[in-house]
Structures are given as C-alpha cells and as structure tokens.
Design brief:
Radius of gyration: 17 Å
CATH superfamily: Ferritin, core subunit, four-helix bundle
CATH class: Mainly Alpha
Strand content: under 5%
Distance between the termini: 45 Å
Shape: globular
CATH architecture: Up-down Bundle
CATH topology: Ferritin
Helix content: over 70%
Bound molecules: fe (ii) ion
Number of domains: 1
Amino acid sequence: MRHYRFSDHLIDSFDQALRSLVPGSTVAERPAPGQDTQSSLTVNQARHVAGLMRVNHSGEVCAQALYQGQALTARLPRVKQEMQQAAREEQDHLAWCEQRLKELDSYPSLLNPLWYGLSYTMGAMAGLAGDEYSLGFVAETEKQVSAHLASHLTQLPENDARSRAILEQMNEDELQHRETALAAGGRELPKPVQGAMTLISKTMTKTSYFF
Ligand SMILES: [Fe+2]
Ligand SMILES: [Fe+2]
C-alpha cells in the first residue's frame, strides 16, 4: 500500500481546489433537474435569479472545501463511504448552479477563492476536533444551507421552473446529508461555533449576490 506524504496531500488539495474554482472543471453525475422546463424571464428577473444562483454556487464551493478539509484531518472510519457519496452529490450541485448561471448569462462569484480557503480551514479544524464534531459540523452546515435554499425558493420568480427544480433537488439532498451525518453520530456544535458559521455564511450570501 502506498503511503502518502504531506506534500502529496498538499498537491491533491490544490488540485481539488482548482477543480472547484475553475468553471467547467466539475462534471455532474446526474443531469440538472428541470431541463425539460422553460423559464422566460425579464432582464430584471434574470439578474435577480443570477444573484441568487451565484450565492448558491458559492455555497457549493464552500461545501467542496468543507468536505476536502475534513477529508484531510478526519478519520471517519465507519462513515467514509456515506460522506464520499455526499461529497459526490455536492459536485452535482456545483455543476448545476454553474450551468444555470451560464444560462442566465452570468458568472460565478469572484470571491470564491476566499470562501474556499475559509471553509477548507474550518473543515480541517472540525476534522481535528474529532469525528463526532466533524459530523456535527456537516449537519450544522447542511441545516444552514437548507434554510437559505428554502428562503431562495420563496424569492424565485413564479415563472422560473428551471431554477426551482434545481434548488428543490439540492434542498432534498442537503437534508439527506444532514440526516446521514446525524445518524453517524454527529454532535451538536457549541453555540459560539454555530454563531461563527452563521456569520460567515451571512457575509458570503450578502456579497456573492453582487459580485
Ligand atoms: Fe450542496
Ligand atoms: Fe450537502
């Protein structure tokens, strides 16, 4: 069996970061939901939806970073496979959001490298804190992501069935990821940690909407 050195992990992490940050380098395993629907939006509606999808795309960049950071430090011997499945589904989400942004003639957030770095560090720290906290961190993240997806679903224009189908499937997956993490023994995080996560995600959602 090959033993990986620290430098191997570093190169692997860098490769993963590029895949998450460079548009077009993540391919979805499942086709984007809502492909058979039509959405004809006014210019203003399209701009608003692009803002929302840019936030969701940034959220998915964070999810990639979180799972990668966690994989670096967490052991998770019993649940590795489930967590890998969840990480795989996050790649679908990333690719779907990216595709929708393109359809709307828009672009991913310029701040994504910053969000990736922050989330990677938080994921790695959660992994160091032990598997129960690491899983608790996933559960808390998914809860917060699901809450903002629910809010975006209420903000979408009625006639945007395409974006709606994507966000609904993402929300379903995120809640499943949360269930998986909790069932595997995820522990509730201390309130200050939850608060810090909310603060970062609020800053992200407020800025990625615009640029
Ligand atoms: Fe996701
Ligand atoms: Fe998720």
